[in-house]
Amino acid sequence: MDLEQLQEQADKDLKINDSELDLESIKTPQLHNQYLKHLTKFKLMLSRAESELHIKKREKWEYYTGKADPSNQIAGFDGRLFLQPLFNVPVSLYTQFVGEDEAGGLPAKYMYLGGADFSSSYKNMPYQLYAEWADTRTNGKAQGISYSHTTYKDGYYQYGFPLGHAMGGDGQMYSVGGDIRFDVMNRLSGRVMYAKVSQTQRVEDNNAAFPQADTIKGLDVTWTHYLKPTIPLKINGWVSDSDVNGNDGGVSVGVEIPLERNMFRF
C-alpha cells in the first residue's frame, strides 16, 4: 500500500454517520489499531531507507575521495571448550567470530555463531543433542554490509547462493537438534529451527536462496541406514512455515555413493 492508497482508505474509514454515533464510537479503537499498524510499518520502511541511504552516501564519499579499498577482507576466530576433562560433564561449548573491514589490526564488523552440544548414550545407543545460534548481521544490526561488497557486487555468494552460512547475510537463526544411533547401520537425526533471513534490500538483491526478507520456522527428520559403512541411504522428511511462502512439507530419498574405485567392490 502506497501513500495515495492509504489516504483513500482513510477517507473511507474516517467518515462518521451522525445517526449512529454509538456504533461509530465502537469503531474508534479498531481504527486506532489499524492505523497504528500502518504507522509502524511506514516507520520501519523509512528507517530501512535511511539506513541504505547512509550506506550509499558513505560508499560514494569513499569512492570519490579515493579512500575506498577494493579488497575484500574477512578474518575470523573459532574455539571449542570441552567440559569433560574439567568437570566430568559430556558437554562442549563452541563459538565463532568472523569479521570484515580491518580497523586497528583487527576486523571491525563482526558476525557471530555459538552453541553447545551434549553427548551420551542410552541403553548402549550413543546420542547427541545440540543448540546453536547464528547471527550474520553486522555487529548485531542489519545494515547491508555482511556478505556484501561495494566493488564485488555479487558479494559472498556463488551464482546467488551463500558461500558461508546457508542463510547468507543479515540473518539470524536459532536451532535445536540431535541424533541417536540405534545400531551400527541405523541412525535417526532431527532439527527444529527458527530463522529471520535477508533483512536488508542489499541482501535480498544478492541472495538467491532467500530473495525476500522472511521469517521461517521448520522441522526436519532424517533416517539413515548404511547399506555399507560408506554408503548411506537417507530418508528425509520436513515441514516448514514461511511468512512469504506459507506452509511447506515433503519427503526425499537419497543414496550417497563415494567416488572411489575400491568402494565399488562388493
What does the model show?
With 266 residues, the protein is an alpha+beta fold. The chain is built from four helices and eleven strands. It has helices spanning 3-13, 21-64, 84-87, 201-206; strands at 74-82, 91-103, 106-122, 125-135, 157-158, 161-162, 172-183, 186-197, 214-228, 231-242, 246-255. The strands form two sheets. Strands 1-2-3-4-7-8-9-10-11 form a nine-stranded antiparallel sheet. Strand 9 and strand 10 form a beta hairpin. It is extended. The model has no long low-confidence stretch (mean pLDDT 87).
Structure summarized in a few sentences:
With 266 residues, the protein is α+β, with helices and mostly antiparallel strands. Helix content is 24%, strand content 43%.
What labels describe this entry?
extended, two-stranded antiparallel ribbon, 24% helix, 4 helices, 266 residues, nine-stranded antiparallel β-sheet, single chain, alpha+beta
Write the layout of secondary structure elements.
Layout: H1 3-13, H2 21-64, E1 74-82, H3 84-87, E2 91-103, E3 106-122, E4 125-135, E5 157-158, E6 161-162, E7 172-183, E8 186-197, H4 201-206, E9 214-228, E10 231-242, E11 246-255
Antiparallel strand pairs: 1-2, 2-3, 3-4, 4-7, 5-6, 7-8, 8-9, 9-10, 10-11
